[in-house]
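Thread amino acids onto this structure.
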């Protein structure tokens, strides 16, 4: 059930109530029919939203709220992402001021590098009421051409922490699981592994030059 439209999104972004038997919760619904056409990304950005969730879980970082594709929904096919209550005054730059958040933000940085996030804005980093940082708005990821656009540059030149590097190396060294590869085309699949391999070889976060 659609509760209303969420502000500031360039595409249709709707807050919904979802129910299953005796359970209920809220989710963010992005219908395909509400997308604004882009010259460099094909339609169906919801598929990339789901792929971002899958990638985050494969890496073991759980940075993206649970996200699925739904064919039957009020406005047709689209992605559905669990709504996580968050502290609205916080964003990447305010979170960076607290060193206690740096490990989570480094993981977000590596996630964006491997996934080729072309739209990491400050407001796309949310501090949940549970104290965990999560990322949202991942429809513009996984392009086979390197198009990284992000606000996260503060870790440039630093060595990638060993736990992050180990997770990325495991992804780089193996075929992508079907849960991720089925959501990407062959060029995008190869590019994910290539970016993961490049980060492992570099061993440090890139510098914005």
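Threaded sequence (209 positions):
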């Amino acid at each position: 059930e659609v509760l209303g439209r969420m502000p500031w999104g360039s595409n249709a972004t709707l807050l919904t109530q979802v129910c299953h038997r005796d359970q209920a919760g809220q989710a963010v619904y992005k219908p395909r029919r509400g997308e604004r056409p882009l010259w460099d990304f094909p339609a169906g950005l919801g598929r990339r939203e789901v792929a971002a969730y899958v990638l985050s879980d494969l890496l073991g970082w759980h940075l993206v709220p649970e996200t699925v594709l739904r064919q039957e929904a009020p406005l047709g096919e689209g992605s559905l992402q669990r709504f996580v209550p968050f502290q609205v005054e916080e964003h990447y730059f305010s979170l960076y001021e607290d060193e206690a958040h740096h490990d989570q933000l480094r993981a977000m940085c590596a996630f964006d590098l491997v996934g080729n996030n072309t739209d990491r804005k400050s407001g796309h980093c949310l501090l949940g009421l549970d104290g965990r940082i999560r990322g949202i708005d991942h429809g513009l990821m996984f392009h086979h051409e390197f198009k990284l656009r992000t606000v996260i540059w503060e870790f440039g030149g630093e060595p990638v922490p060993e736990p992050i590097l180990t997770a990325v190396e495991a992804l780089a060294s193996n075929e992508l699981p079907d849960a991720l590869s089925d959501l990407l085309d062959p060029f995008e699949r190869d590019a994910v592994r290539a970016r993961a391999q490049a980060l492992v070889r570099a061993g440090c976060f890139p510098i914005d030059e």
